Amino acid sequence: MSGLYLLGGAIAAGLLGYLLHALLKAEDY
User: Which is it for the CA torsion 13, 15, 20, 24, positive or negative?
Assistant: First the structure.
């Protein structure tokens, strides 16, 4: 069960990082 929790956390962190990167790129234009 803890493995599933870690997987979910990794996916959430990746999603947050992707959104943050997209926002920073959008601010450049």
Answer: positive
